[in-house]
Amino acid sequence: MSARGARGAGVALVLLLAWLVAYPIGLVLLDAVRDADGWTLAHVREFLARPRERGALWGSVWISLATVAGAALVGVPLAWATSAWAVPGRGALGALLALPAVLPPLVGVLAFLFLYGETGLAARLVQAALGLGEPPWRFRGAGAVLLVHVYSTYVYFLLFTRAALASLDPALLEAAASLGASRRRVALRVLLPQLRPALTGAALLAFMVSLGSFSAPYLFGGSFRVMTTQIVATRLNGDYALAMVETVALTAVALLALWLFGRLDVAESAPAVGRSGGRLRPRRLRGAARWAAPAALWLAALVAVAPLLCVLLVSFVPLGGWREGILPRGYTLANYATLVADPVRFRPLLNSLWMGAAATAAALALAVAAAVLVVRRRVPARRAIEALLALPWAVPGTVFAIAIATMFSVRAPWTGRWVLVGTALILPFAYVVRILPIVGRAALAGFRRFDPRLEEAAASLGAGRWRTLRRVTLPVLAPALLAGAALAFVGAYGDFVVSIVLYTYDTRPVTLEILGSLRQSDIGVAAAYGVVLMAIGGAVMALARADR
Amino acid sequence: MTPYLAVEGLSRRFGGVVAVEGLTLALARGEVLALLGPSGSGKTTTLRLLAGFEVPDAGRILVDGEDVTARPPAGRRFGMVFQSFALFPHLDVAGNVAFGLETAPLSREARAARVRELLALVALAGLEHRAVDALSGGQQQRVALARALAPEPRVLLLDEPLSNLDPELRGRTRRELRDLIRRVGITTVLVTHEQDEAFELADRVAVLRGGRLEQVGTPDTLYAEPANAFVAAFIGQGSAVRARLVARSGADATLEVAGRAVPLQGARVAGPLAPGDAVLWFARPEALALAPEGAAPLAGLVRERRFLGATARFVVALDGAGEVEVQAAPAAVAVGARVGVTVRAPATGVHLFAEEG
Fold first, then answer.
1. Nearest residue in chain A measured CA to CA from B52
2. Are the beta carbons of A460 and B148 separated by less than 8 Å?
3. Is the confidence at residue A325, as pLDDT, over 80?
4. Do A28 and A48 lie in a common domain?
5. What are the chain B neighbours of A462 within 8 Å (beta carbons)?
6. Do A245 and A262 fall into the same domain?
7. Which pLDDT tens digit goes with each residue over B125-180?
8. For B266, which of A86, A442, B70, B346 could close a Cys bridge (C-beta 3.0–4.6 Å)?
9. Which pLDDT score is estimated for A369?
10. Distance from CA of A1 to the nearest CA of B (A)
């Protein structure tokens, strides 16, 4: 490809990505300040005038800030304890504590429901222990949402901090101590600044995940309102213009947060391990801590794993088999049999599979094309390409769902709009946009690490373009691309936020079938779906890692 | 004799910047040529033009009479060893060495035999299934060499072949590399910025500056008969001082340096110089000697002493002229003292060049 050809391809990709990623958001923005008669601020005024709307916006902000604080309070001490203390089974502990990271959001919510919900295992235990006539609590409202959020985001703090600690040169701490600094001073003046990029990186992730979280407030929110659920509710009520304003408001908060975090020193991902000379060596514990610390850590691991185990347990409960008593009365494989044998139950599994796979393949193709143009050809449009690839990450899923629903409900080919809503194409299409940042980042990182000398070496050994691509370029890039694709596939396969806005009955994904089963109190089948989601997610991730 | 590898008027610019300009070289079959020059002299670009990774703006490259200028790298049959070695990380040692053999019409057994043969050649027999990133730097270098040699290339190209190795490893690896190239007898072009490396590995050395060829010749020729002050200074030590040629008869000449007459016996005069011309007077440290002030044609202040063991180098700032480096006994004179400087007779290691415009 000539330099001019590459430039042209760069411009074409920018246009395609802009149409895919920026255009829908722009349409929403326009619809928020416009109606049949022309420009208007009436919808914005209406939004600002309603206490309910202001409350939902504030709810989104504070629950996200509280999530960051809670996740840090859980994740950072766990990271320190599993890095700096010599505890038996340290490796297993680390793996168990990181497990919630692989849970699709809806499955996490499901797990909390089965464990801590008013008819959940924990509630039944407490009720039986205290001999109460009523469930001891109702798992509802802001507190419940916060708990679920902290559970699903503390992992970012755990992993980022642990990686930062692993790459920390212990000589820094020793140097500070030899200069007469107390332990407190060492922690504040040396350790914390070293960890800061990792901590802000984790905080940004936790904030964005919480701000865009839909499943938890949708199922546990009760009267507690946040923007994501409010948008969907408003839209269902048919107040499209107001839904647009809400969407814009949520996007504004997300972009503002991104901008504020961008002013800090943010680690893009967990830092690479093993760069410095020394490694932090785990300290042997003494006195009471010798048994108290491992006990506490293993308890924490149990708390982290219990929701997953609970989903597994419930998946073996027959229909109506757990009305009373602490544990179910009987166990059966019937739920799993239903998934396979009943075509209506099996369909969503297939739907999610093909839609997730198709979306992953398409996003991967776009990401590789982008990486080639940005990294290898260094086209003039490379900054725009990178920005567009990352944009969907900054925008909550609900926003994108609404934006895509808006864009593809009108037939106007000359403005790049077609009617896709209600067709089988709309969900894969939306998934592509959602997972673009994940595969984009993986492809860019892979190409940046790739040494172009390898291709020259292949060429000087007589390999033509095609053989070089097949035998050198792709095999070397494969681990990075596969890891990105696996994460993306798991994201698309377990998606709930976008699906609930855009699905049709024929293309209903697993997550919506879980919701449907829950509504019919068919908790066993819902749990079985959840287990399948977890298993496929785990298998895909393991496959991607095994290829390394 | 027609050369085996010929480069004719090769030029390459990047934007407006000249990387290589009008380069012409010729190598006999089996000859080893080193491209030597400071960074930015165009030596790596020349190598990449030879390999086909860069396309020249002008000029031709011929191998055995065949014009390969327009051939893509894959069709050139030039083997290349990269500075970073560029071993394929996803293939083991045997996989790397076999890569260039995959398109050859060889049976599986023949291919495996060729891989074994090459690994034996570079003393890596038995490491076939080792991962390349589990090898030491020296071993990686040898795998890269075996991989480049496996498809029996017409020309071997080496880009700074030793710069990625630890200093203590370099000397030994250099001798091994030299023996290996001689044994294989392959026509080789190597790039280096280290004179010792060029002298030990190559039959002839091409000195480059700013993309142009300054001089090409055997190491002995370059040292004894440098074409200009740049080559003289780049090959070995020495200092250049501006002077004027006053008189010249045969091998004897008289210079005027900062108003003083300096007689030279047997100095080498490069180019047509006539009395009255401005010249660069280049002297190697061993061609000069210290003397009591007043007993010598030149005098100055001792600025610096560099101790070398049996001898020392003294940097003397001449009155009214530049600095010269003089070799003498370590205790000859103290830093800060004034001292005279004479030219030994005969003045071997003294060159007179026309001053460059």
1. A460
2. yes
3. no
4. no
5. 74-75, 77, 100, 103, 151
6. yes
7. 999 999 998 999 889 999 999 999 999 999 999 999 888 888 888 888 899 999 99
8. B346
9. 93
10. 14
Q: What is the arithmetic mean of pLDDT over A470-488?
A: 90
Instruction: Mutation target for B interface from A449, A450, A460: give the one with most B CBs within 10 A.
Output: A460
A469 interfacial to chain B (CB closer than 8 Å)? no
Q: How far is it, in rounded angstroms, from Cα A349 to Cα B275?
A: 97
Contact B82 A456 (CB under 8 A): yes
Task: Check A456 against B51: CB less than 8 A apart.
Answer: yes
| CB contacts, 8 Å: B151 with chain A | 461-462
Average pLDDT over residues A35-48: 83
Domain enclosing residue A389, as ranges? 7-33+336-548
B226-246 burial string, b = 16+ CB within 10 Å, else e? bbbbbbbebbbebbbbebbbe
| Whether residue A65 is found in the same domain as residue A200 | yes
Give the list of residues 6+ apart from residue A221 with CB closer than 8 angstroms, or none. A140, A141, A142, A144, A145, A229
Across the A:B interface, residue pairs with CB atoms under 8 Å apart total 69
Terminal-residue alpha carbon distance, chain B: 37
**Listed residue (A106, A105, A18, A104) closest to A433, CA to CA:** A18
Domain assignment present for residue A531? The answer is yes
Closest CA to B54 of B29, B37, B71: B71
Tally of domains in chain A: 2
Q: Which of residues A261, A280, A314 is at a domain's end?
A: A314
A21 within some domain: yes
Q: Do A462 and B103 touch (CB under 8 A)?
A: yes
Looking at domain B5-232, its CATH class is alpha beta
* Percentage of chain B lying above the pLDDT 90 cut: 55
Domain ranges in chain B are: 5-232, 238-354
Which residues are within 8 A (CB) of A223 and not within 5 positions of it... i.e. 6 or more apart? A141
Residue of B nearest to A478 (CA): B90
Same domain, A102 and A229: yes
Per-residue model confidence as pLDDT tens digits over B279-315: 999 999 999 999 998 888 889 999 999 999 899 999 9
Q: How many CB atoms lie within 10 A of CB B55?
A: 11
Considering the domain architecture, whether residues A358 and A453 belong to the same structural domain is answered as: yes
Helix, strand, or coil (residue B207) = strand
Q: Which residue of A has its CA nearest to B86?
A: A454
Indicate whether B202 pLDDT > 90: yes
Same-domain pairing of A292 and A352: no
Residue A1 lies in a domain: no
| Cβ-based neighbours of A330, under 8 Å, separated by 6 or more | A317, A318, A321
| Interatomic CA distance for residues A15 and A384, integer angstroms | 10
Q: How far is C-alpha B263 from the geometric centre of its chain's CA atoms? A: 33
Same domain for A178 and A304: yes
**Model-level pTM?**
0.80
pLDDT score recorded for residue A412:
86
| CA distances, A315 to each of A117, B286, B298 (Å) | 16, 91, 101
Q: Do A457 and B151 touch (CB under 8 A)?
A: no
Q: What angle do helix axes A426-449 and A343-371 make, rounded to 10 degrees?
A: 40
CATH of the domain at A107: 1.10.3720.10
Domain presence at residue A319: no
In tens, the pLDDT along A489-503 reads: 988 998 998 999 898
Taking CB atoms and an 8 Å cutoff, what residues of chain B touch A475?
A: 88, 90
Quick one: A133 and A217 in the same domain?
Answer: yes
Task: Read off the pLDDT of residues B96-140 as tens digits, 9 standing for 90 and up.
Answer: 999 988 878 888 999 999 999 999 999 999 999 999 989 998 899
Domain B238-354 matching CATH 3.65.10.10: the answer reads: no
State the smallest CA–CA distance between residue A456 and chain B in angstroms. Answer: 7
